[in-house]
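<backbone_tokenisation>
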Amino acid sequence: MVDRVQRLQDIIGYSFEDPSIAFEAVSAAGAAITSVGARRFPNGNKRLAVLGDTVLQLALAEGWYDGDEARVGFNRVRQRISSNQNLCTQGTANNIGTLIHLSGGQTAVAPVTMADTMEAILGAVYIDSKSMGTVKAVMQALGLTP
């Protein structure tokens, strides 16, 4: 666990106060390990992925709100940055796949698993840091900015 969490922290430029939430973020649904200490995650990183998707949308919306682009521009940026295809591409570019605990029998990271993990990482950073500024810095490190 420690090695994967450390490598994740190195990639995203953020050190977790609670490393167990980072481990949860890189645990795919169906992975053999479903808890660390008191933290339980029987569905892998799915709950963090839902939160991370919302945090990603909020960060993008905040950036749009502060600018002067029309709403249609925001929709294009949101769709491009938060698409599963882009999340998978950026995850692959950042070697996130080497950190993911896969479910039994899986030997390769499916695109949807990569996308979920990228979202889960953002969710974990938000929960751990309680800071949208920190989330935005991690988004920058992962190539998830307009």
